[in-house]
Amino acid sequence: APTTRRFKWDVEYIMWAPDCQQSVMIGINGKFPGPTIEANAGDLISVEVTNSMHTEGLVIHWHGIRQIGTPWADGTAAISQCPINGGETFTYEFVADKPGTFFYHGHYGMQRAAGLYGSLIVNGTDQQKEPYADEYDGELNMLLSDWYHENVYAQAAGLDGKGKHWEWVGEPQTLLINGRGQFDCSLAIERDRKTCDRRKTDAYCKEGDKSERCELIRRSECGPFCEGTQCAPVVFDVEPGKTYRLRIASTTSLSALNVHVEGHKLTVVEADGNSVAPFEVDDIDIYSGESYSVLLKTDQRPQAYWISVGVRGRKPKTPNALAILKYTTSKSEWPAAVPPATPAWDNVTRSKEFTYKIKAREGTPRPPTTVDRRILMLNTQNYVDEHIKWAINHVTLSLPNTPYLGAYFYGVESVAFDAATESPDTFDRGYDIKKPPEAQAPAAQAETAVSNRVYKVANGTVVDVVLQNANALEAGVSESHPWHLHGHDFWVLGYGEGMYEHDRDFKKLDVTSPPLRNTVVLFPNGWTALRFVADNPGVWAFHCHIEPHLHLGMGVIIAEGMERLHELNVPKEAVMCGQATRAAVPLAPATSPSPPSP
Ligand SMILES: O=C1O[C@H]([C@@H](O)CO)C(O)=C1O
């Protein structure tokens, strides 16, 4: 039977050394990463969050949880709720609506990149059984992230800068596996885990090997990676002859990643809490905001193996992260070989091949075939008053001082944000996506608006979104963007190269076995089509999950089913700030929330 899982969290700054270098991070209950939440599908999760940071507000987003009937618990600052002020406590209550691999993270400023995240695992039940539930003996959990030595306040100030004061965050220093990484040392392989003895580099890098990895190892000044330190590599102990479900989620700030387990095949069974038709691969690509479960058979020689995680899609300056898969019967602590290489960062074709294999498992609901609304979203990088921003249909997102949900609930939308102008459903079809914005024909040139307007979507509407990628500011550059939708899963109907042409491309979309997901990649110079049903009244963010890109305005706001908002008991303490405090008459009585019935 569903139960209530109660957690009490104190969020505070902590000194921590995630990659052996001491930093200030945002921790939960004194630790980084935050505690893993585990629940059964249907359980009510109740997290009493106290903000002990005192110098900044706080919200926590439960990534992949749909928040059915509880839009105020989605944890998006200025969208679904007011930031929790320093010293204050807010209780998130929501139903873990279905089994899957999820995570939670800060969604205010760049708090995610400051280390505010952790795993959220929802187990299947008899009522909601995962179709592969009987195919594994044990579970392993891997939460991937990346880490910058520059603090997020400096990062944000750079991104907000004007003219020559604008500064890009660059590549992260370290990749982390379950919050652990090794700065500037392609690894821990230099040290013995138990004794902390320095090992001979030559055993791993032959004399004369000038590869970046070996150069890094030789130069490294890393602290001891012995057991017990905060940056010791993660060791997954496994029994031979079993099948494990390896859960992998990525909450990176920037990096797209590849995960390779030395000597083992991986069978993908879950993506973002949805079952996919199983397929076997040597390694997986994972973009920020995505999660997967893979089945791994411990059918190899009983020894220790590397798990290697490397950067994809951007020219990496970041060494691979390494963890160890160790058979309980292994005679040695350490893998014998050099860590396996992950695929070349610029091999996009390989990433597409992996992504296109993801299809719904039989039994997955199919999308409705009648579409009520189509929104084309052109993704561009633009100069706005000497600032570099990202824009969707020439609008760059700027959040209001009043959470949209509160503005709607208290009927102050016209003063709280630009409620009069709708976000545009399309863009000039003459726009040449192979060229930078300033090289466009005059007709396709458009001023980029800095705006807090929304897409108003009526309850029950079936919405198609086609994300259209384009060239960035620099000629010849187009990047990958993982787009994440709050409050929903959507069907991924298809991907294509170049410009989406409705008459040609719409009929090729897959409506028979499209996977359900909450995050999807938009590949360089291409398009991605998805469909969702607006059946969950709330104000939902839909945005690029790259933290600095969201900060630069790469997102839109969907005000969904606002005509039914009065049916929900939006708690006053969630949304009473900004203009909402001046509202004379709330649209609905501001009562305490009745906990959603699981
Ligand atoms: O948003 C970005 O800005 C930089 C670059 O385009 C401008 O310096 C980069 O690589 C991004 O992804």
From TrEMBL:
InterPro entries: Cu-oxidase-like_N (IPR011707), Cu-oxidase_2nd (IPR001117), Cu-oxidase_C (IPR011706), Cu-oxidase_fam (IPR045087), Cu_oxidase_Cu_BS (IPR002355), Cupredoxin (IPR008972), CuRO_1_AAO (IPR034259), CuRO_3_AAO (IPR034267). One of its GO terms (molecular function) is copper ion binding. Keywords: Copper, Disulfide bond, Metal-binding, Oxidoreductase, Repeat, Secreted, Signal. Its cofactor is Cu cation. SUPFAM superfamilies: Cupredoxins. Its main location: secreted. PANTHER family: L-ASCORBATE OXIDASE, MULTI-COPPER OXIDASE. Belongs to the multicopper oxidase family. This is L-ascorbate oxidase. The lineage of its organism: Eukaryota, Viridiplantae, Streptophyta, Embryophyta, Tracheophyta.
